[in-house]
Design brief:
With about 200 residues, this protein is of the alpha/beta class. It contains nine helices and five strands; from the N terminus they run αβααβαβααββααα. The chain has a single domain, classed as Uracil-DNA glycosylase-like domain (Uracil-DNA Glycosylase, subunit E), CATH 3.40.470.10. Bound molecules: uracil (URA) and iron/sulfur cluster (SF4).
Length: about 200
């Protein structure tokens, strides 16, 4: 079993928080084990809980479109969530659940080692941009170690608030430049490249 399959199998049987009692299926995430680009959403919804796959409902279809706008296919990127099991009635995940689930995301990131991590919505944003607000930090990149983190609104928010569509679409179009910057960083390991802040 590959290291990532091992983590994801553990998640499927995980009893570590209250959400395990409500789930149909846990949703570990999907994509290539060596993906350079990784997206982190909030939590599975109804469709994801039924299928065991991330972002397959309406927000997922919009995310697929956004990924397409930068010339990627969904199966070329890794997609996961802050918590891997659906909160009942799609309520917000609670701090204890986020904390209990955190080590899985950390282990996934250690194995996949993406160059660029995109946070979708405020729950994943607050892990890497602590104390920031999404309205301020969306469309901005930040380097932590060898990885660049890039914050975006959640695609579901953009579906519900039409005026956010333009914003989220403008933000995703900044990603190719962030990916180029991340590539340079890798080439120039000894001489850290300047990271542009948008
Ligand atoms: N919303 C999320 O945050 N994650 C999913 O997987 C689906 C919808
Ligand atoms: Fe385990 Fe995370 Fe599911 Fe809670 S949400 S049961 S910690 S996999």
């Amino acid at each position: 079993m590959s290291p990532l399959t091992e983590i994801n199998t553990e998640i499927e049987h995980c009893p570590k928080c209250e959400l395990s009692k409500h789930r149909t299926k846990a949703v570990p995430g999907e994509g290539p084990e060596n993906a350079g680009l990784l997206f982190i959403g909030e939590a599975p919804g109804w469709h994801e809980d039924k299928s065991g796959r991330p972002f397959v409902g309406p927000a997922g279809q919009y995310l697929d479109q956004l990924i397409g706008m930068i010339g990627y296919k969904r199966n070329q990127v890794y997609i996961t969530n802050v918590v891997k099991c659906r909160p009942p009635e799609n309520r917000d995940p609670m701090p204890g659940e986020i904390q209990a689930c955190g080590p899985y995301l950390e282990r996934q990131l250690e194995v996949i080692k993406p160059r660029v991590v995109v946070t979708l919505g405020r729950y994943s944003m607050s892990k890497y941009f602590p104390g920031e607000s999404i309205s301020k930090v969306h469309g901005r990149a930040k380097r932590i170690g060898g990885t660049i983190y890039f914050a975006m609104y959640h695609p579901a928010a953009a579906l519900h608030q039409g005026n956010l569509r333009k914003v989220i679409e403008a933000d995703i179009l900044k990603l190719p430049a962030v990916l180029v910057e991340a590539g340079k960083m890798e080439e120039e390991k000894d001489r850290p490249a300047q990271l542009k802040f948008f």
